[in-house]
Design a protein that fits this description.
Distance between the termini: 62 Å
Helix content: 25-40%
Oligomer: single chain
Largest sheet: 7 strands, mixed
Structural class: alpha+beta
Number of helices: 12
């Protein structure tokens, strides 16, 4: 049988079997099926990958508990063998939940309006939308279902939602419960089937499972999930050109083991990750075509960093085939600082960074004349995780962030990106060259304290930039 025919055949056998069998039996069958039939072509399995994800409404079969209009997900395999990935199952689940979260973001964004109460301000003045709460609730519910013993560290809590719900009851202004009802509706549409319908309290408790104080750690290395429901919420609100990311990572005994980044509005049609030092090969995000395809980046310790497109996720189809082509990521090969492309936080300026005493910056990436006194500064409107994604893909060479006295650096803004960059060949340290200490916040694991700031590079430039930073110790 031809390889392509075998791939289609194996995929449809999964669909047919899944349609008739309960999930528990299907899961057992899937492993047996993958090990026998697909063993005939391991090269196809591991390189081209059978990692299409099929989504479809469950038909009305004899198993009434499976009847639902919810979109189911069938996993095939990742682009590396199961035996080489100790946390293969955790990564499978993480991919599923991040994909569902990306769909929530798309759905909410379509209906988002600045005047309908869907945007609120947290105490730190960063905007939170229904999407943030819904994504955290959904991922918390699904992770707890699959891995109930692994705690979750996440950005949001339900304080604001609970207060709005309480006020709506006390004031008999039931329209004020709009936020909670909207979050519940978004989660129900994507969550796994439960024995009983989800309630408002179920969703609020799921959000709080990752909130501050939900879990207390001790001094020992710990295992836990880290979630940023939407990194770059301001980007989420700004429009089509601003990127945002759903980021999920698994820390195992103090070390990052798995990372998944979902960017629903990534617009590149195709990205070459090799030889991107020449300016004519650098894609311009703001000029890419309007067909938003989305991108998923996954990483497993020792197995590399990989991406695939999420183009079909944006439709309102009941039967979706998510693009199955995995591409392995590599950082760019630039070895000279003046050839590198830099990213900095949207909230910081080039003049606030140590390298500004040596180099000026320019955003003109189309210049045909190399000026060795100017560094190219990529304008990327997004949160930190998207900048990690760009370094891991070779689209940027360096991401540098300065720690500020009054700004707390949150762990969820970095952890999922850190493993993606490292597994792509890059390096992440503080400004002294030390690894970031994930357990610096010994009790809650919610913040990190990098000396000076965070430096993310392609590896080849790392020591050189550290040396330049150290020459301006007054800024560190």
């Amino acid at each position: 049988m031809h390889a392509a025919q075998r791939e289609r055949y194996s995929l449809w056998v999964h669909v047919i079997i899944y349609s008739f069998l309960p999930r528990s039996i299907y899961e057992s069958f899937r492993d047996l099926f993958s090990e026998s039939f697909l063993k005939a072509d391991m090269n196809l399995l591991h390189s081209k990958s059978l990692s299409s994800t099929l989504r479809f409404k469950s038909p009305e079969r004899i198993y009434s508990r499976e009847i639902s209009s919810r979109l189911f997900s069938i996993r095939c395999c990742l682009p590396f063998p199961r035996e080489k990935a100790k946390h293969y199952r955790e990564l499978e689940v993480a991919i599923d939940v991040v994909q569902s979260a990306c769909r929530i973001c798309i759905d909410v964004k379509k209906s988002l309006s600045l005047n309908d109460g869907r945007i609120v301000e947290k105490n730190d003045q960063t905007p939170v939308t229904i999407a943030d709460f819904s994504v955290q609730a959904l991922i918390s519910l699904e992770l707890n279902r699959s891995f109930p013993s692994i705690p979750l560290v996440a950005e949001e809590d339900s304080t604001f939602l609970r207060s709005s719900l309480t006020n709506s009851i006390e004031d008999k202004d039931y329209a004020s419960s709009f936020l909670v009802d909207s979050v519940l509706a978004a989660v129900i549409g994507k969550a796994s089937i439960e024995s009983k319908p989800l309630s408002q309290e179920d969703v609020l408790n799921a959000i709080d499972r990752g909130g501050s104080g939900a879990h207390t750690f001790d001094a020992k290395p710990s295992t836990y999930w880290v979630l940023d429901p939407i990194d770059g919420t301001r980007g989420f609100l700004k429009g089509r050109k601003a990127l945002y990311v759903v980021g999920l990572a698994l820390v195992v005994e103090g070390e990052i083991a798995v990372g998944v980044l979902g960017c629903p509005n990534w617009k590149e049609e195709s990205v070459s990750v090799q030889g991107l030092c020449s300016e004519d090969k650098i894609p311009n995000i703001s000029e890419c075509h309007a067909n938003q395809a989305g991108i998923l980046m996954v990483s497993h310790v020792g197995c590399g960093t990989w991406t695939r497109r999420l183009s079909s996720m944006l439709g309102n189809m009941d039967f979706l085939v998510i693009h199955d082509g995995w591409t392995r990521c590599s950082v760019d090969p630039c070895a000279f600082v003046y050839e590198a492309r830099f990213c900095i936080p949207d909230s910081q300026t080039w003049e606030s960074l140590p390298l500004s005493t040596i180099y000026s910056s320019t955003t003109d990436m189309g210049s045909s004349i190399k000026d060795k006194t100017k560094l190219v500064l990529k304008s990327v409107c997004c949160g930190s995780l998207c900048k990690y994604l760009m370094v891991a893909m070779g689209m940027a060479s360096v991401f540098i962030l300065r720690a500020r006295m009054k700004t707390v650096i949150k762990v969820w803004d970095h952890v999922a990106g850190m493993i993606c960059v490292s597994e792509a060949g890059g390096r992440v340290t503080d400004w002294k060259g030390s690894d970031l200490e994930l357990a610096a916040d010994k009790l809650q694991r919610r913040v990190i304290f990098p000396v000076g700031g965070i430096l993310v590079t392609n590896g080849a430039l790392h020591n050189h930039i550290l040396q330049m930073i150290s020459t301006d110790s007054s800024r560190v």
